[in-house]
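Duplicate of #3305? Posting structure anyway:
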C-alpha cells in the first residue's frame, strides 16, 4: 500500500486513540494510582490537540514523512498509556508505576509538541493556507502549544532519581529531602503501605530477573535500594510515634515493615522480623531475605526468644504493659505517626520531618512559595539571617515546591537546596534552577517560533536582537526582540550567559516601563529567566531593576505581575538584596498582589515576602504593609494556601508588631485550629506562632487557652514532628507555669 493510501486510516487511528483515552479518563474512577491526576491532566491536553488533527488535510501531508512518523508514534504512545491505565491495580508497585507512567506522559507531551512544530513549519512554508483551514487552524495550533507547554505534571520520578543519585554521591541531606517527597507523594506513610510496596517491588524483581533484561534489572535493583533508603530515613527522622509517651528503640522495629516487633521471628538468613510482616512476604511466594537479599534455603520461621526477652525487659523498665498478641489490637496500641495522612506533606510541601536546623536550611529559595510554610523559612535563610530561627520549623522537603517556574520559571514549586547563596547549597540551587529539561514551564504568550529555542544561540545573533530592543521608535521590533530573548533564556543555561553578557539587561529593564502590556510582559519574563543563572542574576540586580519591577507589579498584566514577584524573589536570594528590596517599597506592592492577585500571583507574592522576611528589618515593613490581614484570611482551608500563610506568619510573629496584628486580625482561633487539624508542617508553624504569642503577652496567652489549644497541643507533643513536639511541650510548660503562678498569688 502506498504512503498516501495509508495516510487517512492512520490519522483516523490517532484521533480514535485520543478519543478512547479521553473517554477512559472521563469514566475512570480513582483506583489510588499515584499519577491519576497527571493522567487526567494529559487527557485535557489531548483534547486541545484533537481539533488540530481533525483539520489536517491528509492529501497535504502525504509527503510529510516526519509528521507521519510522529503521528504514528503518538498513536502508539497513547494506546500504551490507555493500556497501562486499564491494567493498573493497587497491588502494583507505586514507585515503578510512577517511573513508567511519567515516562509515558513525557514522550506523549514531547511528541504532541513535535507534531505542532511540524504543522507550524508547514504553515510558514505553504503558499496557500486552504489545506489547513487557514487562520483558524493556525490559532488552534498556537493554543494547543500553549496548553501543552503550560501543562506541568508533578514529576515524582525526579525525586526518585535524585534520591538515588544523592545516595551514590553520599549527599545524605539532599537524599532526605527527596525521600520525604517520595514517601509523602506515594502515600507510603504507614507500616502496612510500606510492606505492600516492598512486596510489590520484590514480585517485580523476581519477574524481571527471570526475564534477564539488563536495563530492567538495573532499574528494579535501584528501586530495592531506594526502599531500603526510605526505611532508614523513616527511622532516622523519627517518623514514628511513641508507646504511652516512651519512644520505641529503632532496633525493635521490623526491618521489613518497620512494625514494632511484638512477635519477633528468625528466617533462614538469620535475620529477625515481625512474624506477621515476614509471613505476608513469604505468603506471596517470595524466597529472598528482604534485608540481606540472600536466597532463603527454606521458609520456616522460628521465634527469636532473645529479642523477645529484650522487648519484654524494655516494657518492664518503662512500666509499660505489653499489648495483646492480636495484631489488630497491637496496631491500635502502638501509636504510629506514619498513619497520619499529612505526616509527610501538605499541598506542595514535603515531609515535615524537621530533623534539624541544618536540614531546614536545605531548601533553596526557589522553593519558598510552597515552602513558605515549613521549611520554607529555613530554606534560604542562613544562621545569621533569621532572628527567629529558634521558632522556625525546619521541615526538610516541605518547602520544596516553591515557585518552580523554571522555563517560565518558578511557577509551581520544586525542591532546590536552600543554602542557595553560599557553598554547596548555592551550586545546587544554581544547577537545579538551570536544568530546564526536567521542569515544564507555562507560556503566557507564545509565537510559532517558540518550537526550537532550546538550541544555543550566538553572540552575533543576540547583538542583533539587542539592537532591536533599543529601537524605541519601533515598538513591534522591541516586542519581538523581548519575546525572543524570553524564549532563548527559557531553558538554555548557555543562552542566559550569552544574553546577559551581550548588553540585553539594561534595554530589557527600560522596557519594564513600556505602555504596551505585552512588551512589558515579555521583558519581565525574560529578566526572570535570565536571573536563574547566578552570575547573570547579580548583573540584573546591579542594573537597577528593583524599582522597574515594582512598577510592573503596579501596572502590569496578571502574568507580568506574577513574574515580577517571582523575579524579586529570585533577586532576594542574593543576600545583599534582601534588605535593598525591602527598603525599596516592594513589600507594599507584594502585599497588594497577595490580597488581589491571581492564585499563582498570591503564591509568588507569598514566596517573595517570605524570603524578604528572613531579613529581620523587613519583618516590620511587611506587617506595616498589611500582610497579616490577608495571611489570616488565607488560613481558611479552601484557599489552598494555609501552609504558606502560617509559615510566613511564624516568621512575622517574632516581632511585636506581627504578634499584635495576628491577634487583631482574629488569627488566633484559626491558628489553634491548624494545630488541631492541619498538616504536619502547618501544625509545626502554627505551634511556633502560638509560642511567640504566649511567651510575650499574657493577654494573648489567655486568648489561646480560651480557644481550647491545650488538647491539640498535648496530641502534638506526643505525635508531631520533633520540632513540633518541642514547641508544643514549651507551650504546655508555659501554661503550667502561668497557672502555678496564678495559684501562688491567690494564696
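Output from current build:
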Amino acid at each position: 500500500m502506498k504512503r498516501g493510501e495509508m495516510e487517512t486510516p492512520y490519522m483516523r487511528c490517532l484521533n480514535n486513540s485520543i478519543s478512547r483515552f479521553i473517554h477512559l479518563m472521563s469514566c475512570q474512577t480513582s483506583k489510588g494510582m499515584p499519577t491519576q491526576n497527571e493522567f487526567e491532566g494529559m487527557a485535557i491536553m489531548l483534547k486541545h490537540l484533537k481539533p488540530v488533527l481533525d483539520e489536517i488535510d491528509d492529501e497535504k501531508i502525504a509527503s510529510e514523512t516526519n509528521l507521519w512518523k510522529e503521528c504514528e508514534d503518538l498513536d502508539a504512545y497513547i494506546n500504551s498509556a490507555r493500556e497501562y491505565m486499564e491494567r493498573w491495580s493497587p497491588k502494583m508497585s507505586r514507585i515503578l508505576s510512577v517511573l513508567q507512567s511519567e515516562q509515558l506522559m513525557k514522550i506523549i507531551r514531547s511528541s504532541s509538541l513535535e507534531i505542532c512544530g511540524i504543522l507550524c513549519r508547514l504553515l510558514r512554508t505553504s503558499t496557500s493556507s486552504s489545506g489547513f483551514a487557514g487562520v483558524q487552524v493556525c490559532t488552534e495550533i498556537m493554543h494547543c502549544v500553549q496548553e501543552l507547554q503550560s501543562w506541568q505534571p508533578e514529576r515524582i520520578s525526579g525525586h526518585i532519581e535524585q534520591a538515588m543519585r544523592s545516595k551514590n554521591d553520599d549527599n545524605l541531606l539532599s537524599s532526605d529531602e527527596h525521600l520525604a517527597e517520595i514517601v509523602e507523594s506515594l502515600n507510603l506513610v504507614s507500616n502496612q503501605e510500606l510492606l505492600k510496596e516492598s512486596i510489590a517491588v520484590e514480585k517485580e524483581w523476581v519477574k524481571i530477573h527471570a526475564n534477564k533484561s539488563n536495563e530492567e534489572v538495573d532499574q528494579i535493583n535501584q528501586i530495592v535500594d531506594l526502599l531500603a533508603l526510605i526505611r532508614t530515613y523513616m527511622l532516622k527522622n523519627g517518623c514514628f510515634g511513641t508507646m504511652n509517651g516512651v519512644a520505641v528503640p529503632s532496633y525493635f522495629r521490623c526491618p521489613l515493615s518497620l512494625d514494632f516487633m511484638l512477635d519477633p521471628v528468625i528466617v533462614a538468613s538469620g535475620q529477625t522480623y515481625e512474624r506477621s510482616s515476614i509471613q505476608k512476604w513469604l505468603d506471596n511466594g517470595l524466597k529472598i531475605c528482604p534485608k540481606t537479599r540472600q536466597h532463603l534455603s527454606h521458609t520456616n520461621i522460628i521465634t527469636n526468644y532473645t529479642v523477645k526477652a529484650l522487648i519484654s525487659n524494655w516494657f518492664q523498665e518503662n512500666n509499660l504493659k505489653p499489648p495483646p498478641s492480636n495484631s489488630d489490637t497491637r496496631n491500635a496500641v502502638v501509636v504510629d505517626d506514619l498513619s497520619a495522612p499529612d505526616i509527610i506533606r501538605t499541598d506542595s510541601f514535603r515531609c515535615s520531618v524537621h530533623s534539624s536546623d541544618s536540614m531546614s536550611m536545605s531548601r533553596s529559595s526557589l522553593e519558598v512559595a510552597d515552602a513558605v510554610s515549613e521549611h520554607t523559612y529555613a530554606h534560604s535563610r542562613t544562621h545569621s539571617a533569621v532572628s527567629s530561627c529558634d521558632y522556625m520549623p525546619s521541615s526538610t522537603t516541605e518547602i520544596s515546591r516553591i515557585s518552580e517556574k523554571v522555563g517560565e520559571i518558578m511557577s509551581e514549586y520544586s525542591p532546590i537546596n536552600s543554602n542557595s547563596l553560599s557553598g554547596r547549597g548555592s551550586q545546587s540551587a544554581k544547577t537545579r534552577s538551570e536544568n530546564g529539561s526536567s521542569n515544564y514551564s507555562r507560556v503566557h504568550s507564545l509565537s510559532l517560533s517558540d518550537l526550537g529555542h532550546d538550541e544555543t544561540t550566538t553572540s552575533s545573533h543576540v547583538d542583533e536582537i539587542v539592537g532591536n530592543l533599543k529601537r524605541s521608535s519601533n515598538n513591534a521590533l522591541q516586542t519581538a526582540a523581548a519575546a525572543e530573548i524570553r524564549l532563548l533564556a527559557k531553558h538554555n543555561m548557555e543562552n542566559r550567559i550569552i544574553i546577559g553578557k551581550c548588553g540585553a539587561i539594561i534595554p530589557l529593564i527600560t522596557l519594564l516601563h513600556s505602555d504596551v502590556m505585552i512588551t512589558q510582559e515579555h521583558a519581565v519574563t525574560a529578566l526572570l529567566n535570565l536571573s536563574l543563572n547566578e552570575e547573570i542574576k547579580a548583573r540584573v540586580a546591579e542594573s537597577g531593576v528593583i524599582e522597574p519591577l515594582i512598577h510592573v507589579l503596579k501596572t502590569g498584566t496578571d502574568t507580568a505581575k506574577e513574574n515580577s514577584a517571582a523575579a524579586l524573589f529570585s533577586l532576594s536570594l542574593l543576600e545583599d538584596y534582601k534588605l535593598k528590596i525591602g527598603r525599596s517599597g516592594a513589600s507594599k506592592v507584594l502585599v497588594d498582589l497577595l490580597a488581589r492577585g491571581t492564585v499563582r500571583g498570591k503564591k509568588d507574592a507569598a514566596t517573595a515576602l517570605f524570603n524578604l522576611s528572613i531579613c529581620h528589618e523587613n519583618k516590620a515593613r511587611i506587617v506595616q504593609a498589611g500582610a497579616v490581614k490577608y495571611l489570616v484570611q488565607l488560613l481558611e482551608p479552601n484557599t489552598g494556601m494555609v501552609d504558606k500563610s502560617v509559615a510566613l506568619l511564624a516568621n512575622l510573629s517574632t516581632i511585636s508588631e506581627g504578634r499584635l496584628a495576628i491577634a487583631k486580625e482574629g488569627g488566633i482561633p484559626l491558628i489553634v485550629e491548624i494545630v488541631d487539624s492541619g498538616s504536619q508542617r502547618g501544625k509545626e508553624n502554627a505551634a511556633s506562632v502560638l509560642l511567640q504569642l504566649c511567651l510575650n503577652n499574657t493577654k494573648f496567652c489567655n486568648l489561646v487557652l480560651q480557644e481550647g489549644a491545650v488538647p491539640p497541643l498535648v496530641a502534638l507533643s506526643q505525635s508531631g514532628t520533633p520540632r513540633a513536639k518541642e514547641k508544643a511541650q514549651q507551650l504546655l510548660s508555659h501554661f503550667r507555669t502561668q497557672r502555678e503562678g496564678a495559684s501562688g498569688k491567690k494564696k
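Confirmed duplicate; merging threads. Residues 357-393+402-433 form one domain. The CA atoms of residues 81 and 229 lie 30 Å apart.
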